[in-house]
Specification:
about 240 residues
């Protein structure tokens, strides 16, 4: 192996996709299951097709905004915690630099370095970026993993909308008999595809992911359909 081959060597790791993959799958899965289940429950209640479509649209908008708001609040709390840790570390570095250097050295010793090498690494990293070194190795805050509330909110809302669109479009285009059956079938197929693709991207076989999503999607649709059937009404 020559120098250029070694320099360009790259090993892709699946765990790097865990953050965005989890958010995308959660949002799309939630959008598809909740919206299709809501519309199926309305269909089982024998409501008019326009009412079913309206309930789907309302579920899409409410769900997307709820996902965005929840993600924004959650990630904002994470940002507040990160800023608090930054202030704590910054003050400690100003008031007790020697103790902080020893603390960083001990961290590297626990990771397998000799005491001498750990001390040298700690000295050099402290000289380069003392706060960054402590945030990364002591607290676990990395620059490329910093919480971004607005980005997280928009991504969650978009993922939910993508998942909720198929049943809403079906309710808009399909006005004849058999809509409930078609919605159940299409939703379960899309859920299986979503679960399969998600696990494949994560490095798995795909079938377990499809089975997991299908199970919970079936339970959700069965529950809402039962409620709609039990409390069915005629809406003009």
């Amino acid at each position: 192996m020559n120098h250029d081959d070694h320099y360009h060597h790259h090993e892709p790791h699946r765990s790097q996709n865990s953050g965005w993959l989890r958010a995308a799958v959660l949002g799309a899965n939630d959008g598809l299951i909740s919206t299709s289940s809501l519309m199926l429950g309305m269909a089982a209640a024998q409501t008019h097709s326009s009412t079913i479509l309206l309930s789907g649209l309302a579920g899409l908008v409410a769900g997307a905004l709820s996902m965005a708001a929840g993600e924004y609040v959650s990630v904002s709390s994470q940002v507040d915690a990160e800023h608090a840790d930054m202030r704590i570390e910054s003050r400690a570095l100003r008031e007790h630099p020697d103790l902080e250097l020893k603390e960083l050295t001990n961290i590297y010793v626990q990771r397998g370095l000799t005491a001498e090498l750990a001390h040298e690494v700690a000295v050099q990293l402290t000289a380069h970026d003392d706060l960054g070194a402590h945030l990364r190795d002591e607290v676990g805050i990395h620059d490329n993993h910093r919480a971004r509330p607005v980005q997280a909110a928009l991504a969650s809302a978009a993922a939910f909308t993508v998942g909720a669109l198929p049943p809403v479009l079906l309710g808009w285009l399909w006005r004849g008999p058999g809509m409930a059956t078609t919605m159940v079938t299409s939703s379960l197929v899309l859920l299986a595809v979503l679960g399969y693709v998600a696990e494949r991207v994560a490095g798995g076989g795909g079938w377990k992911g499809a089975a997991r999503v299908l199970l919970w999607g079936t339970l959700a649709q069965a529950g809402t359909a039962l409620i709609g059937w039990l409390f069915r009404v005629s809406v003009v």
